[in-house]
Design a protein that fits this description.
Elements: H1 7-21, H2 36-46, H3 59-62, E1 118-119, E2 125-127, E3 135-136, H4 150-156, H5 162-166, H6 173-180, H7 186-194, H8 197-206, H9 218-232, H10 239-244, H11 253-262, E4 282-283, H12 308-311, E5 320-321, H13 343-351, H14 353-359, H15 374-377, H16 384-391, H17 403-414, H18 447-450
Antiparallel strand pairs: 1-2, 2-3, 4-5
Helix pairs in contact: 2-8, 2-9, 4-9, 11-17, 13-14, 13-17
Length: 452
């Protein structure tokens, strides 16, 4: 419902809704805290390409500081590429990429919050006792014991992914081992790290149970990475946080109107609820389909069925995890495949999903030029039956929002940006103990472009 004719009535209505729906302020105690020595170790590992099969890509390549912990692309270029962000190239010759990364690189903000129990767009990693190691993951019972957090567990999985960090089959010993069984590549990477004297000394200093470098395993590497990620991207000092803490003047009138719409008639908070503005559940939004998709064994090459790929339940088809919206203005493009380059675009899609799906243009996708993959980038859009199945599943109710109302919601979303979001505790190192090159500078979009 739109409230345009009677703004006073709308204000009363919105205030009553807001009283019950806005979250409590975030506090430092809501997050896990870590040993600074482990955090520093994790920072170096995060940017060290020694953890990739071919020693040519790091975690920080696709989750770069200059891009607020993302890569700024709809679908990234993983192992085999060169450069960072919009300047990243797909490689050449035998080492060129064979596939785009199937999904958008999510931001890392506030992953240390104690309530987060599920990660990845399809939720394929969750806190669980199913396999006796604390997590339900693609590694199943082969995920090692001792990982301290879901973030530590998450950090290990891209290391085994062929197109992200492990490399193509036949290129190195890591991917060869992973192809035999997912956990067989991790000891190879752990040995690479612990034989570097500086790393060995740092692990002995940072972990009480590590007495010598030979004791270092992938568990300590994962825990160091998790400690860094959870500490480095903890941030909750936005104007909205100030408002929640009691400063009624923290939001300007446009942002306040946007907040009232967000928690009121626009229905955004139906899914973007709680302190992180996510219910951590899975919903179908009819986002435009493109790219290689994260396929299952019998799927066509370009298909991505979202949560169904993890659960094998038909009712989960095309549903993806609700992302947190904190610092969302910094992490464009948006959607599980980065279908929209701007906040305006993704807000308009939420208001009228099927209308915007029909109007979407391929040029909206932020895809680096890869000529040998162009034939499959948008081939899914020609599959009439798949398109009909995709459109038939929709979990959000269309709502009539004027252009000014959508602009107000965008203004509120920008008010979720932390005042210190650009100033991280450690930042990006200039060098790493392996001596491999560090991706130092990203081709980041301007502040205006990132916030649109």
């Amino acid at each position: 419902m739109r409230h345009v004719v009677f703004p006073f009535v709308f204000s009363i209505f919105a205030s009553s809704v807001l009283a019950g729906d806005v979250p409590a302020p975030l506090r430092a105690d809501d997050f896990r805290h870590h040993d600074p020595k482990q955090v520093k170790l994790g920072q170096l590992l995060f940017y060290d390409k020694v953890l990739s099969g071919n020693r040519n890509i790091a975690c920080g390549t696709c989750h770069h500081h200059d891009l607020a912990g993302t890569d700024g692309l709809s679908l990234g270029i993983g192992e085999g590429g060169e450069g960072v962000g919009h300047a990243r190239l797909p490689g050449a010759g035998e080492s060129r990429i064979a596939k785009r990364v199937p999904r958008n690189a999510p931001g890392l903000w506030n992953l240390g919050h104690k309530d987060i129990a599920v990660l990845f767009h399809d939720g394929r990693l969750s806190v669980s006792n199913l396999f006796g190691n604390g997590f339900d993951s693609p590694a199943e019972e082969f995920l090692p014991q001792g990982l301290a957090s879901i973030t530590a567990a998450q950090a290990l999985l891209p290391l085994t992914a062929e197109f992200e960090m492990a490399g193509n089959v036949g290129e190195n010993e890591v991917i060869g081992a992973v192809r035999d069984r997912i956990d067989l590549g991790w000891p190879i990477l752990a040995k690479r790290v612990r034989v570097i004297p500086e790393y060995g000394e740092m692990f002995v200093d940072a972990f009480d149970h590590i007495e010598a470098a030979e004791d270092v395993s992938i568990v300590e590497i994962g825990n160091a990475l998790g400690a860094f990620i959870e500490t480095e991207w903890r941030n909750f000092d936005s104007p909205f946080d100030a408002y929640l803490a009691g400063d009624a003047t923290a939001l300007d009138p446009t942002q306040t109107r946007g907040m009232e719409l967000f928690y009121g008639p626009a229905g955004c908070a139906n899914c973007h609820s709680g302190p992180l503005l996510s219910d951590m559940q899975f919903h179908a939004l009819a986002l435009p389909q493109f790219g290689p998709g994260r396929t299952r064994q019998f799927d066509p090459y370009a298909r991505d069925v979202g949560r169904m790929g993890e659960t094998d339940r038909l009712e989960d088809a095309y549903r993806f995890r609700t992302p947190s919206l904190r610092n969302v203005a910094l992490t464009a493009p948006y959607g599980h495949n980065g279908a929209y380059a701007t906040l305006e675009g993704i807000v308009a899609h939420h208001a009228q999903p099927l209308v915007q799906l029909a109007a979407w243009q391929e040029g909206n996708a932020q895809l680096p030029d890869v000529p040998w993959l162009e034939a499959i980038d948008f081939v899914i859009r020609d599959d009439r039956l798949e398109a009909a199945r995709h459109r038939s599943v929709l979990d959000i109710t269309p709502v009539a929002l004027s252009a000014s109302e959508q602009a107000d919601i965008v203004a509120f979303l920008k008010a979720l940006t932390g005042e210190t979001s650009a100033t991280r505790p450690l930042g990006r190192p200039t060098s790493v103990p392996s001596g491999l090159p560090v991706d130092l500078a990203a081709n980041a979009p301007s502040e205006g472009a990132a916030g649109q």
